[in-house]
Amino acid sequence: MGKGDQVTPIIAGAVHRPRSDEDEALSGQFKLRQRKYLTCCGCAAALLLILAVVSLVLAFTVFRVKNPIVGMNQLTVTRLEMANGTLRKDVNVTLLADVSIKNPNVAAFRFGNTTTTIYYGGSEVGEGRTPGGKAPARRTLRLNMTLEVVPAKLVAVPTILKEIGTGALTVESRTRVEGRVKIMNMIRKKVVVMLNCTITYNVTSQGVHEACWRHVSF
Ligand SMILES: *[C@@H]1O[C@H](CO)[C@@H](O)[C@H](O)[C@H]1NC(C)=O
Ligand SMILES: *[C@@H]1O[C@H](CO)[C@@H](O)[C@H](O)[C@H]1NC(C)=O
Ligand SMILES: *[C@@H]1O[C@H](CO)[C@@H](O)[C@H](O)[C@H]1NC(C)=O
Ligand SMILES: *[C@@H]1O[C@H](CO)[C@@H](O)[C@H](O)[C@H]1NC(C)=O
Ligand SMILES: *[C@@H]1O[C@H](CO)[C@@H](O)[C@H](O)[C@H]1NC(C)=O
Ligand SMILES: *[C@@H]1O[C@H](CO)[C@@H](O)[C@H](O)[C@H]1NC(C)=O
């Protein structure tokens, strides 16, 4: 049985030689096609793998949304009017805050209206509003924020006289910058940056000293 099986193809091969060539050619073509198909599959898989790796690397580097950094560079008192040895109650005390927003991302950080609130002894004594804007990619945006402290609200806090007697007045400011980073229409991330500062006004020298804390939340 086994012998017969082995013999038959040889005979068949001898008799139909041209067809065998055809068959061989056909099977060769088939093998070639199969190899091409496999190569193609391999290439596609490799390409997909490379794409996946590149995407992953990009996701963790370039496309990762990083925290913008808000900083207070300088704070100056631009208006403080005294009358008869005390603060004039009808004129706001004005401070100019030089704020920088550093954007480390590859896309712009767009933010909306920004509000800074000033607190003294736990109560709100003033505020400042700054229109929204855009910190370009990998750039630092400088902003001038005007803050106004309402004297009437300030003197309403009972500890004020005692504190002024020590030669310094300490207030707190809280700035909230809310915006979003959009990278190539694919990644959108909302970012909220907070900047809390302790502002100390030296009554004698009229200088301002500030210390700030940053806080970011997504
Ligand atoms: C300062 O005091 C004088 C008299 O004591 C008074 O006439 C004047 O209105 C006071 N000025 C202010 C701004 O309160
Ligand atoms: C931002 O403030 C401007 C005027 O100060 C106002 O017209 C605008 O509606 C505000 N935008 C938002 C989103 O609150
Ligand atoms: C003083 O500042 C407050 C905001 O803190 C504002 O509403 C008010 O109009 C200002 N007053 C004057 C006289 O500028
Ligand atoms: C901020 O104010 C200072 C002094 O008034 C001015 O020199 C500077 O150009 C201002 N910066 C911006 C970004 O408006
Ligand atoms: C900043 O102020 C907010 C309230 O506006 C508070 O929740 C937060 O704890 C403060 N952060 C720091 C670091 O003081
Ligand atoms: C205010 O400034 C003066 C002069 O710079 C300094 O001698 C004094 O110690 C300061 N006062 C406070 C409370 O920091």
From TrEMBL:
This is Late embryogenesis abundant protein LEA-2 subgroup domain-containing protein. It comes from Trapa incisa. The chain crosses the membrane at residues 37-63. Keywords: Membrane, Transmembrane, Transmembrane helix. Coiled coil: none annotated. Pfam families: LEA_2. Residues 99-198 form the Late embryogenesis abundant protein LEA-2 subgroup domain. InterPro entries: Lea14-like_2, LEA_2. SUPFAM superfamilies: LEA14-like. The lineage of its organism: Eukaryota, Viridiplantae, Streptophyta, Embryophyta, Tracheophyta.
